[in-house]
Amino acid sequence: MTHAERPLVSVVIPTRNRPHAVGDAIQSVLNQECRGTLFELEVIVVDDASSDDRTAAAVRAYPTVRYLRHDVSRGPAVARNTGIAASRGTFLAFLDDDDIWLPGWMSNLLPVLLAAPDVAVAYGRCIWEFNGTRTMPDRSLQPSGDIFEALLRKNVVGNTVAVLSRRAAVLSVGAFDQQLQGCQDYDLWVRLAVSHRFQFVEAAGPLGVYRSSSTGKWVQEIGTGQHAAHCRHIVRRALALRPLPPHVRDDLLDNVELNVMRALSLVPTSPSQYVDRWVDTLKGRPRVARDSFARRDLAWNARIHVLASAVPRAEAGSIAARARTACGSSIHARGLIAQMWLEIAMGALSSRRASLCVLALARAGMTDPPHLVAHLTSRLCRRFRSAPEKLRTSGLSGSQPTSS
């Protein structure tokens, strides 16, 4: 393949005050396998008005890298769009200044787009490093083709670390939304998925390393509720761009709230605060009461909070009343509240607080008698199933006397 035949890939790296990290990001791009044989490379670093001189010096240590600078800080979305406007490649990739690519990144993703002109985005797996601890990606296959609905249910594509796009497709949807203060990568994937095809690439291993921490911007946004607001905005706008049947739309909007609550586990949150967030969620989306995760999570945190309270009966009654006000008296709402009372009863039983246990069981029965019966039956069945194993391990079941 001659130089003229090799496609140009533009890599945009936004940075600000990270001279210690941006060099590693650049080097990981320059270290890509098949560079110069499968593809040509253009690396553009956009400095979003760093307040030090070291960031510029760190970038200029790489003579082949184009360095652009904002006079005032305008945020990562604007920085990425500045890089896009200056790029000349057929394909676009984005790498944050504290993340890195592994050597096989380009040799895995680029051939997919070269072989399938109808595919706009190729994506793979990456390692997640949180507070210095790395988690390997699971091996489950992710969707390909029209992934619009799948993306609205969950950000299956992830961050920018393992994503390669056609430049024309990114430009066709207006690139990054400069008005959005968070989740800008997820927003771009969703808008691309409205009318473009994606391809998941099953590589031999992860393609990059995504780094985050409990003090980072994303986790802070989860704690303040900004993350939830961004996700709601992105999904609602997407549904306006490509309407789906009402029942699917409702399920997707419910799912946004469930994903937001799952993300909250990354933020140090007391059980009482967590219960408050669940009650607020039920006020906005009472249909969430039907979800098994919502039931288990609210019940468990209510249990911890109530058992630690100086007035557990009053606190349990208050949570149940607030949940009932938030989600009404539907069968799903009754099941949610009954499960909360049952979890409190189990906690009270474990801590030998008989009066609280009896009260909670009675309230569970009054709220949803079938739920109580089903729960107790399930526990008894598990107890009986485990009994033979306990007997075998203790030598009391199936043993034959031995002769001496």
What does this structure look like?
The structure is a single chain. The protein is of the alpha/beta class and 404 residues long. It has two domains: 8-213, Spore Coat Polysaccharide Biosynthesis Protein SpsA, Chain A (Alpha-Beta Complex); 271-384. It is 52% helix and 13% strand. It is built from 16 helices and eleven strands. The protein has helices at 19-30, 54-60, 76-86, 105-115, 148-153, 167-172, 184-193, 217-224, 226-241, 246-263, 271-284, 292-308, 312-327, 331-350, 354-367, 369-394; strands spanning 8-15, 40-47, 66-69, 91-94, 100-101, 119-123, 127-130, 133-135, 163-166, 197-200, 208-212. It has a seven-stranded mixed beta sheet, sandwiched between helices. It is elongated and about 80 Å long. 37% of the residues are buried.
Number of domains: 2
Helix content: 40-55%
Distance between the termini: 83 Å
Portion of residues in beta strands equals 5-15%
Global Rg:
27 Å
What does the main sheet amount to?
Answer: 7 strands, mixed
What's the rounded overall pLDDT mean? Answer: 91
* Class per helix and strand makeup: alpha/beta
Question: What's the architecture of the largest domain in CATH terms?
Answer: Alpha-Beta Complex
Principal-axes geometry comes out as elongated
Ranges where pLDDT stays below 50 over 5 or more residues in a row are 396-404
- The SSE order reads EHEHEHEEHEEEHEHHEEHHHHHHHHH
How many helices? The count is: 16
Tell me how many strands there are.
11
User: What's the CATH topology label of the largest domain?
Assistant: Spore Coat Polysaccharide Biosynthesis Protein SpsA, Chain A
| Major sheet: arrangement of strands | 3-2-1-4-9-6-10
